[in-house]
C-alpha cells in the first residue's frame, strides 16, 4: 500500500471545507478519497475515545469480543478479576491477527499460527520456539486504553488519551443510573442506590448503605443467580433487596434459591462479609481467591 501523505490530505481537507456551502453536505471526497479517510482515522479515530460496545456483551470472566476501528482490530476481554481490558488483536510473535470471531468465551487467547497463548489480562503464557533468555514479560498483548462508563465501553488508541474524557464519567453516571435527566441531588437520608462508592486506602470500593464493604464471588457467573447458599451464606450475607425491587442503572435484582431477592452490580451479586465488623474493614479474604472487593466501574 502506498503511504498516504497526511500533510497533503490535511491541506486538501482544509481547502474543501473552506469552500463548503452552509446547509450542504460535505463534498464527495470526504466519503470516497483514501487520503481523507486516512486523515480521519489518524486525526479522530486514533486519537479520541470511541464507543465500541457494552459491558453486558462480555458478562463473565473469559468473555471476549473483537471490534474493528478502521484498520485496527482490538480484543476486549473480561479477566478473572472481572475487569475489562482492551488489546491490539495482533500476535506478538509474527503479528498475525489472533481472534477472528466477533464474540466468544475463552480461558486464554491463543494465536492459531504457532500457538502462542496469552491470558485474559494480556500476559504471554506459552510460546513455542521462543529463544532462551527472552523476557516474556515484554511480549504480552499491546494494551489499549479502555474506560467503562456505566456499562458503555470506550477505547482510545492514542498512547496519551485526551484528558477531557476523565471528567465525562462523573458527569454522565448520575443521569445514566436514573430515569430522569438531569439527576436530582441525592437526599441525605434516602439512599439513592443499594450501594455507594467509598474512597479507601484500597481505592474506590462499593459499600452498602451502612458503609460495610461489599464483595463479589467468582462462582456467580450467570449474572442472574447466586451460588452462595447454605453454609456459604452464613459467612457471606447477600445484599438484600425488597421483594418489589426493580433494576436501576448498574444494579439488577437476583432471586435467590429461597425466593428472597438480592442486589447485583453489573450482574455480580453483592455480599457483605461476616469477617467485617465495622465500616471500613475489608477482611473478606478466602484462600481460594474466589471473593473480591466490589469496585465501581469507573
Ligand atoms: S504469529 Fe502468532 S504464534 Fe506465530
Structural class, please?
Answer: alpha+beta
Query: What name is given to the CATH topology of the largest domain?
Result: Rieske Iron-sulfur Protein
What's the arrangement of strands in the largest beta sheet?
A: 1-10-9-4-3-2-5
Bound molecules: FE2/S2 (inorganic) cluster
Measure the end-to-end span.
40 Å
Tell me, what's the shape?
Answer: globular
CATH superfamily of the largest domain: Rieske [2Fe-2S] iron-sulphur domain
Please bin the fraction of helical residues. Answer: 10-25%
Number of strands: 20
How would you describe what is shown here?
The chain contains five helices and 20 strands. The chain folds into three domains: 6-45, no CATH class; 51-163, Rieske Iron-sulfur Protein; 195-293, no CATH class. Helix 1 (6-18) crosses helix 3. A seven-stranded antiparallel β-sheet has the order 1-10-9-4-3-2-5. Strands 15, 16, 17 and 18 form a four-stranded antiparallel β-sheet that branches. The chain is globular. The chain has helices at residues 6-18, 29-32, 34-45, 168-176, 230-235, and strands at residues 50-54, 63-69, 72-78, 84-88, 103-105, 109-110, 117-118, 124-126, 143-149, 152-156, 195-200, 203-208, 215-217, 236-238, 240-241, 251-255, 261-265, 268-269, 271-273, 291-293. It has 298 residues and is α+β, with helices and mostly antiparallel strands. The longest helix is centred in the N-terminal third of the chain and has 13 residues, at 6-18. Mean pLDDT is 85; it is low at 177-192. The structure holds FE2/S2 (inorganic) cluster (FES). FE2/S2 (inorganic) cluster (FES) binds at residues 91, 93-94, 96, 111, 113-116.
Amino acid at each position: 500500500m502506498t503511504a498516504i501523505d497526511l500533510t497533503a490530505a490535511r491541506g486538501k481537507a482544509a481547502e474543501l471545507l473552506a469552500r463548503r456551502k452552509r446547509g450542504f453536505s460535505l463534498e464527495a471526497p470526504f466519503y470516497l478519497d483514501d487520503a481523507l479517510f486516512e486523515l480521519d482515522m489518524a486525526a479522530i479515530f486514533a486519537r479520541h475515545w470511541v464507543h465500541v460496545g457494552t459491558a453486558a456483551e462480555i458478562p463473565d470472566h473469559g468473555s471476549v469480543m473483537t471490534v474493528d476501528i478502521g484498520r485496527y482490530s482490538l480484543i476486549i476481554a473480561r479477566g478473572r478479576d472481572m475487569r475489562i481490558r482492551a488489546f491490539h488483536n495482533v500476535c506478538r510473535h509474527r503479528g498475525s491477527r489472533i481472534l477472528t470471531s466477533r464474540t466468544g468465551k475463552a480461558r486464554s487467547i491463543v494465536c492459531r499460527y504457532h500457538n502462542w497463548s496469552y491470558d485474559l489480562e494480556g500476559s504471554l503464557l506459552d510460546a513455542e520456539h521462543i529463544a532462551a533468555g527472552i523476557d516474556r514479560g515484554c511480549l504480552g498483548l499491546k494494551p489499549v486504553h479502555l474506560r467503562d462508563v456505566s456499562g458503555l465501553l470506550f477505547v482510545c488508541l492514542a498512547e496519551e488519551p485526551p484528558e477531557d474524557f476523565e471528567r465525562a464519567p462523573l458527569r454522565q453516571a448520575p443521569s445514566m443510573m436514573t430515569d430522569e435527566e438531569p439527576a436530582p441531588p441525592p437526599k441525605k437520608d434516602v439512599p439513592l442506590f443499594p450501594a455507594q462508592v467509598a474512597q479507601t486506602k484500597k481505592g474506590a470500593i462499593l459499600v452498602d448503605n451502612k458503609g460495610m464493604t461489599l464483595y463479589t464471588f467468582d462462582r456467580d457467573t450467570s449474572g442472574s443467580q447466586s451460588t452462595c447458599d447454605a453454609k456459604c451464606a452464613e459467612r457471606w450475607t447477600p445484599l438484600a433487596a425488597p421483594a418489589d425491587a426493580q433494576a436501576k442503572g448498574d444494579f439488577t435484582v437476583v432471586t435467590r434459591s429461597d425466593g428472597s431477592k438480592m442486589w447485583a452490580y453489573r450482574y455480580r451479586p453483592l455480599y457483605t462479609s461476616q469477617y467485617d465488623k465495622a465500616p471500613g474493614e475489608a477482611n473478606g479474604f478466602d484462600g481460594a481467591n474466589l471473593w473480591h472487593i466490589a469496585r465501581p466501574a469507573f
